[in-house]
Structure formats: structure tokens, C-alpha cells
Design goal:
Helix content is 74%, strand content 0%. The chain has 15 helices and no strands. α4 packs antiparallel against α13. By secondary structure, the chain is mainly alpha-helical.
Length: 353
């Protein structure tokens, strides 16, 4: 990539972003179809499949960065991606029905628990940054392993919460979306069936889209790092802003689809679920690079972790307090998140490495 002209790098970056956008949509649609037909929708396997499928761009970038030992890009992409994908909820709020904020119509204790899982995983990330770098065995460090354990335990609790909580109406607040969470996935499967799309065809499309996403993820990381490096942008700033925004494109598209179909709870759940899964990629980065990643985290990485937690907590508060007032088609929580993210990115540039 270093020998290519900047214009060619820009074309490769934009082309890869377009592929990630389109392939991400196909991945989401076929994942919903396969989850319904294989009866994984409400099972733990379905949750894991959805988390992996929606984060394939980040997985490809993390693997590519770890193989090339550009760990600052890998860490910045994961932690910056959490903050960026949380801001996607602002877009979904603006694109909502206009009658009430997103968190008002989607309020559910299960979603609050999903947000708590994101914060819990990020807390372990901060703990891992303080451990000595030589504390590892067979390329495995305790922090990366603990992240996976906390994530898996959280999924089990969420599955339990999905079967019902000892709260009024199973944890859903009154006056929320009329249909249950996940109804859009059932409708997608029914639409695919009526269009004659069989399970085998859906699986083939899923596989092709997954490969395209992985390849595009590698290209967008390599071309983007070289291009924006020439413009003077550091690896962590690039990973946390430009790269994180590019890999959040599928979440924007699929989230808009859920909101338009009235499945507001699923729109938030997909964002929180993806954010909880992203730190699991630190284990893959450590295995590939041959050394623990988190002990080498910069100040900017810890800063991004705190920013992701803060933005998540704002939306958790919105789900609990359910502010009804809309301004600029946004609830007060979305306006707060937008302001905090802008301030956070400005602070990131001041923090540097």
C-alpha cells in the first residue's frame, strides 16, 4: 500500500466502505433468515451468530492489524468502534416515528441489562490495561480471557431475562412498541420465504457476504491507515474516528430497517450486543500478535474506553427515565450523547497517544 498514490488509496478506501455497507446489509438479512429457520432466534447460538455477523468488519480489521503488528489501530478500532456505534442510536432516534424518543418507545429492563454488560466488559478492559505485559501463558493473558468469560456470563443472564423478569409486564415499560422485540426478524424470514429464497441460498449469500466483508475490512484498514497517515493522523485517531465510522455503516442500515419496521427494541439491542462483543476480539488480537494487547494500551485507548462507557450509561438512563420531550427529532439522551461524543473526540485529539 505504501507505493500506491494517494488517489488510488482513496478509491480503495471508498470502494471497501461501499462493499462493507452492502455486504453488511446482506449479512444482517440472511442472518435473520437463518436464525429463524434454524430456530436460533431466541437461543444463545442465535445471539452469538448475530454478534459475530454484525462485527465481521471489525474482526477483519483487528486480525489484519494484529498480523501487521499495528496494534494501536486494532485497539483504537475496537474501543473507538464502541463509541461510534453508540452514536448510531442518535441517527436511529432522528429517523424514528417522530412521536417519541427512541428510548421511550423501546424502554425495557432487558435493554438496560444489555447496556450494563457493555459497561462491565469495558471495566475489565480498563483493568487489563494495568496488568504487567509479561503476565501471560500460551499467548493468553488473563484480561482477554476474563472479557470472554464476562461476555458469555452476560449472555446467559440476558437469555434468562428474555424468558421473563419478576417485574411488571416482564420488564417492559407501558406504552412501548406494540409488537414484541425481534418481530422484524420474523417478518424478514416470511418475506424471504414468499420470495422463494431457500435456506441453502440464504446460507450461500451469507458466506459470500462474509468473505466480501472480511476482504473489504482488510483493504479498508491497510489503505486507510496509509492514506490518513500521510495526512498526519495517528493510528489511534484513525481507528477511533474514520475507521470506526466506516465499519459502523452496516449497523446504521440495519438499525434504520428495524426502526422503520417498528422494532425499536431490536435496534438498540443490536447496538448494545455488538458493543459488548467487540472487546472479545482482544483475545484474537493477542493470539495473532503473540503477546497481550491490553497492557500496551495508550492513554488514548483508556480514554476511548471511558467514552464508550459514558455514552452507554446515558442511554441506559434514558431507558429508565424515558424522557418524552423531542427537540430536533431527538430525545434529551441522544442530544447529550451527540454533545459528549463531539467533546470526547476533541479531547482524544488533545490526549494524543
Amino acid at each position: 500500500m505504501g507505493d500506491l498514490p494517494s488517489l488510488v488509496l482513496l478509491v480503495l478506501f471508498l470502494l471497501s466502505a461501499g462493499i462493507i455497507w452492502y455486504a453488511g446489509i446482506r449479512l444482517s438479512d440472511t442472518t435473520d433468515v437463518l436464525s429463524e429457520r434454524l430456530h436460533l432466534g431466541s437461543a444463545l447460538g442465535g445471539v452469538i451468530l448475530l454478534a459475530v455477523a454484525t462485527n465481521l468488519p471489525e474482526a477483519a480489521i483487528t486480525v489484519s492489524a494484529a498480523m501487521s503488528h499495528h496494534l494501536d489501530v486494532a485497539v483504537g478500532n475496537i474501543l473507538g468502534g464502541i463509541a461510534a456505534q453508540t452514536v448510531v442510536l442518535v441517527i436511529l432516534d432522528v429517523a424514528g416515528t417522530g412521536g417519541a424518543p427512541l428510548t421511550y418507545v423501546a424502554a425495557s429492563l432487558s435493554l438496560v441489562l444489555e447496556g450494563a454488560l457493555v459497561v462491565a466488559v469495558l471495566a475489565v478492559v480498563v483493568m487489563g490495561t494495568q496488568l504487567p505485559g509479561d503476565l501471560e501463558f500460551a499467548r493468553l493473558d488473563p484480561a482477554s480471557l476474563l472479557i470472554v468469560v464476562v461476555w458469555a456470563a452476560g449472555l446467559l443472564l440476558l437469555r434468562r431475562a428474555g424468558r421473563g423478569l419478576p417485574w411488571h409486564e416482564g420488564g417492559d415499560a407501558p406504552d412501548t412498541q406494540p409488537e414484541p422485540k425481534g418481530h422484524s426478524r420474523t417478518k424478514k424470514e416470511a418475506r424471504a420465504t414468499s420470495s422463494g429464497i431457500g435456506t441453502r441460498r440464504a446460507a450461500v449469500v451469507f458466506g459470500v457476504a462474509a468473505v466480501a466483508t472480511l476482504v473489504a475490512g482488510v483493504v479498508i484498514e491497510r489503505s486507510g491507515e496509509e492514506l490518513f497517515g500521510r495526512l498526519g493522523m495517528s493510528g489511534v485517531a484513525f481507528g477511533a474516528t474514520v475507521l470506526a465510522a466506516a465499519t459502523a455503516l452496516p449497523e446504521i442500515s440495519t438499525g434504520l430497517t428495524s426502526v422503520r419496521m417498528g422494532d425499536h427494541q431490536l435496534a438498540i439491542s443490536d447496538i448494545f450486543g455488538g458493543n459488548a462483543f467487540l472487546p472479545v476480539l482482544f483475545l484474537a488480537a493477542s493470539l495473532i500478535s503473540g503477546r497481550p494487547v491490553l497492557p500496551d494500551a495508550h492513554r488514548s485507548d483508556i480514554y476511548l474506553t471511558a467514552l464508550g462507557s459514558l455514552l452507554t450509561l446515558v442511554y441506559m438512563a434514558g431507558l429508565i427515565f424515558r424522557p418524552r420531550l423531542l427537540r430536533l427529532r431527538m430525545g434529551v439522551d441522544s442530544r447529550a450523547v451527540l454533545a459528549l461524543y463531539a467533546l470526547g473526540i476533541a479531547g482524544l485529539l488533545a490526549v494524543g497517544g
